[in-house]
Amino acid sequence: MRVLGVDPGLTRCGLGVVDGGKGRAVRCVAVDVVRTPPDADLAHRLLGISDEVERWLDKYKPAAVAVERVFAQHNVRTAMGTAQAGGVVALAAARRGLPVVFHTPSEVKAAVSGSGRADKAQVTAMVMRLLNLEVAPHPADAADALALAICHLWREPMRARLAEAEARAAEMARTHKARLAAAAKQAKNPGAAR
Q: CA 81, CA 11: separation in Å to the nearest integer?
């Protein structure tokens, strides 16, 4: 499976494509950072991100897109810009019918390093190790995008199986409830079934 990982941001938006193989084998396909000028108006900055994401989706043809969820930031303006950039990415993927999953920073850190509290240097070091990279992706947004793709490749199969199991359990519960209701109705009015 091929995944496009995106670390959204207005000034720097990290993009990383990773292929997943058997087990936990992963391979870096491409990594880069989209930059938009801070003095440009918001609409043109989002357009620049959108154009580049569209180009990557066309070029690399991922099966899914993993985007970092805006979790919490002290700077509301930065959080808004990050969320808007993530929305542009989700829209581009949705237009192609691609699944989009948002992962929290702690989920990504835990997936690649084993600790949800890992710092940027630890995440970058693990990304380099997992993908057999000789040079660290720079800036950190690029490494984060690769980490998002790896996280998705490793977590999504489990998440999908869990969702499937929950749906089966809910269906079984509905069937059981209906049978109980029918039995209770039959017990109240035993002659109605004849």
A: 9
**What residues form DSSP beta bridges with 100?**
65
Binding-site residues sit at 7, 68, 141
Q: Are 95 and 101 in contact (CB under 8 A)?
A: no
Residues 6+ apart with CB under 8 A from 55: none
Place of tokens 């154009």: 51
CA distances (Å), origin 93, targets 24, 66, 140, 160, 186:
25, 10, 23, 19, 52
Active site (catalytic) residues? 7, 68, 141
Q: Return binding residues for Mg(2+).
A: 7, 68, 141
The owner of tokens 């581009």 is 92
Rounded CA separation 128/31 (Å) = 12
Torsion of Cα atoms, 160 then 163 then 165 then 170, to 10°: -160
Give the Cα separation of 179 and 82 in Å (integer).
49
Q: Are 2 and 21 in contact (CB under 8 A)?
A: no
pLDDT digits (tens, 9 = 90+) for 141-185: 999 999 999 999 998 877 777 778 888 999 999 999 999 988 888
